[in-house]
Design brief:
By secondary structure, the chain is an alpha+beta fold. 27% of the residues lie in helices and 31% in strands. The chain has one domain: PH-domain like (Roll), CATH 2.30.29. The protein has helices spanning 3-12, 18-23, 53-74, 164-172; strands at residues 32-40, 75-76, 93-98, 101-106, 117-123, 127-136, 142-148, 153-158.
């Protein structure tokens, strides 16, 4: 183990097998087909900074505008839409494509804290498509768009560049 691996493991702990860890928490009959780390493209920004009351108010107002603009670009559908039920917290999260449902999990900042917390479940029958948009976000990570049978959509930044296996499962989902 090199110096970087030792340093990384000191702060993040041991890596976990996400398929095994999350598969054990899925309902009976649901299995992990593919997974990847994600951050919502329309994540909720803070706004509490600033040294004065005026600075804090200005920061909060700026964050509110940024959140509204970002949400309008990366989350679509009415108030009861499937996409509106997905979490917009900054993450990172783990997106799991299961045999029965698409699920979103929180495993902490290092994505290895167990047990994982289930954040959202969407039955597979409600997922229309999962596509690579061809766009990239900060750091060059790809952006995927999930569309749902009700016409809503949700964009994710893929923090772990998924391989062909993930895209193969996603295209057949």
């Amino acid at each position: 183990m090199g110096l970087w691996e030792r340093y990384k493991s000191f702060f993040s702990g041991p890596e976990i097998d996400l398929t095994t860890e999350l598969g054990a928490q899925l309902p009976a009959g649901d299995d992990v087909l593919a997974h990847t780390g994600v951050i919502p493209s329309a994540y909720e920004r803070g706004g509490g900074g600033g040294l004065s009351v005026t600075g804090r108010v200005l920061n909060a107002a700026t964050s509110a505008v940024e959140n509204a603009v970002s949400t309008s670009q990366h989350v679509g559908g009415g108030t009861d839409a499937v996409a509106r039920r997905l979490p917009q917290e900054a993450g990172p999260h783990v997106l799991v494509l299961g045999t029965l449902a698409l699920t979103v999990w929180d495993l902490g900042l290092t994505m290895n804290q167990t047990p994982a917390e289930l954040l959202a479940t969407v039955p597979r029958a409600q997922v229309d498509t999962i596509l690579d948009t061809g766009a990239t976000a900060q750091g060059g990570v790809p952006v995927a768009r999930l569309t749902f049978t009700d016409g809503s959509f949700f964009d994710y930044r893929l923090v772990q560049k998924p391989g062909d296996e993930f895209w193969s499962v996603a295209s057949a989902y």
